[in-house]
Amino acid sequence: MNSQKFKVVSLLSDHERLKRESNFLRGTIVQDLEDKLTGGFNGDNVQLIRFHGMYQQDDRDLRAERMEQKLEPLINIMLRCRLPGGIITPNQWVGIDNFSKQHTLYGSIRLTTRQTFQLHGILKPKLKNIHKLLHELGLDSIATAGDVNRNVLCTSNPMESELHSQVWLCAKKISAHLLPKSNAYAEIWLDGKKTEYTEQEIILGSTYLPRKFKISLAIPPQNDVDVHANDLNFIAINNENGRLIGFNVLVGGGLAMTYGDTSTYPRKASEFGYIIKDDILKIVEAVVTVQRDWGDRVNRKNAKTKYTLDRVGVNKFKKEVEDRSGVKFVPIVPYVFSERGDRFGWIKGMHGLWHFTVFIENGRILDYPDKLLKTGLAKIADVHKGVFRLTANQNLIISDVREEDKGIIEFLMRKYGVIGDNITLQRKSSMACVSFPTCPLAMAEAERFLPQFVTKVEHIMLKYGLANDSIILRITGCPNGCGRAMLSEIGLVGKALGRYNLYLGGDYTGTRIPRMYMENITEDQILKILDDTIGRWSRERYERESYGDYVIRAKIIKPVLNSVEDFYVSD
Ligand code: SRM
Ligand code: SF4
Predict the structure, then answer these.
(1) Which of 65, 137, 498, 552 is surrounded by the most beta carbons within 10 Å?
(2) Domain count within the chain
(3) How far is the CA of 482 from the centre of ligand 1 (A)?
(4) How much of the chain, in percent, has pLDDT values that exceed 90?
(5) Which range has the worst mean pLDDT, 185-199, 515-529, 549-563?
(6) DSSP β-bridge partners for residue 122
(7) Catalytic site residue 478?
(8) One of 81, 154, 170, 439 is an active-site residue; which one?
């Protein structure tokens, strides 16, 4: 009996041990902060700091050079803020901007695909400073990484602001409800009072979740948050007066896969049914705890909700959620997604307020030789009386601008080159993950490759008279899929330096997973395929038919209907 018990325990992944032994996420982080011999953290702490919103990294461009000089890699920390629904005040922006300028190796702010920002290149001695600053600004980085619920996404659509503010409040509530209750963050980073083993993680459990967990709230017709990339999704349904009445619930989306392991695959979320808005937290808690209890804690590759659903069956999972929440799903209320990206430029919303969406290529906010993007945004923050909204497409909305303040905002945007007039629709529909030099998992370039690659795709579009069209194009540096290529019409997934797998056949609105068209090919090979297929699309497409739908109809690629069954079936 005992030996059997021992066997079961030892099968669990090492992450389970380290969470269990972490004393509610404390580990020995405090001691490591005092360790001046290394710029990094040791042992389990490298994983544990993730639960506090940080990743240990080094600059991969400098690795070889430093090795030659017999130096430790230039270890530094990337911090990811928690920002449910992506809303940040000008005062908060100014604080973050100053810190990034003064205390990070790269001096940039990076907007992410999950509506928040990352600061790359913080050295260990400055870590407490950033956490204290975030705290003073009313922000934190708790649970933006690790086996917990991550930053909660919410459609960043200022047009329907009445509905938006109701849905955004739900996003905020969910984020707060699912935070770890451990006092470790305050204790370690804010010199908070120590607690003696009194904590209880009632929802997350003492070993937290089996794997990361992601939630989105979408307001149709916008699918800007890419619901099918998330474990749990709420699609807002409103009444005829535009008031929020409830949500359709979708469970089990996720995009990552591992090369050579067909037990991993990108998967769309399954529709569970409709609930009234007051039941949202009950459903959140039930889905999270079912995944907590049923998720695979042995094999981390199969630990996400999408695999739990496919292992136990959608109906069984759904029934358990109903039993635990006491809420019965009713049939899905019809909804349509017809939009995906952000609405650039000025838009007038409710209460006479204006919103300007700024295109930020790759989400990287930095001063460039031809435009002082970072300085310009800081100057705008100095005078802006509304808020900023970060979008899930790595862009930024200067939001809630009064009519009389439009002039100064526009003046500053023009002065510092924050507005670009000649940005094509194609560029605005293209996105890449961070990848090199900071991401330790990168196999190919993404963020640094995208701008010039898009220029070449723009030439193809122009050649075929498609300047007013666009294709959802996404690049990710490895199959983890942070740039959400697995929900694009053209997806490049990094295989090795200069080589990508090309995926085609996703749809414009992000409801179909693309399929691999060709493996391990170079930029030239990809451009040849795109020239051919985009040319055919321009000649043969039905009115308003998207590229993704065309390549399916023209039988250039077979659609992925059910990932678990046919994602790896070759065409
Ligand atoms: Fe991601 C790991 C960056 C959104 C799937 N992701 C990483 C790490 C932390 C690498 C690491 O583990 O050391 C990357 C840090 C790079 C760097 O230097 O900044 C990284 N992920 C990002 C960001 C910054 C990409 C971006 O360009 O914006 C996004 C930050 C989101 C945030 O603010 O919370 C980001 N990551 C995503 C998404 C898209 C989404 O959530 O909408 C996905 C695919 C959706 C999904 O989860 O299925 C995604 N990231 C992953 C995975 C694969 C997880 C899995 O299911 O296996 C990893 C690797 C892992 O967790 O083991 C990963
Ligand atoms: Fe890094 Fe891969 Fe994510 Fe890109 S997709 S940021 S390369 S983990």
Answers:
(1) 552
(2) 1
(3) 4
(4) 90
(5) 185-199
(6) 77, 104
(7) yes
(8) 439
